[in-house]
Amino acid sequence: MTDADITAVSVSEWAADQRTYLASMEFHHALEGVAIGQLSEATDFSSMEGEQGIGVATSGTTVFTFASGSLADLSGKTLKFTTKPTGLRSFELEFTDWPESLLWK
Hints:
Blueprint: E1 5-15, E2 18-30, E3 33-49, E4 52-69, E5 78-87, E6 90-95
Antiparallel strand pairs: 1-2, 2-3, 3-4, 4-5, 5-6
């Protein structure tokens, strides 16, 4: 999903620098395709630079409840994922258990 957009709404709980997600919905938009994902579990850790948070590293599982167009193969799939910060307010998302995931970095 190079150059794809992801919009998400999440509810989470923080304990020190670790966050546990209680609920989250994601809208993935790629060239000629859309997918809706629901987080089934995830945790993350904040990355700090001095006093400022610069990003989070996350791992968890997403269930794709709907997908169409170029992302249609995601429909009904449950995938593990990781994210790593690549800069302020940006990250790289990788689905770690889907053969095509290497194309989605």
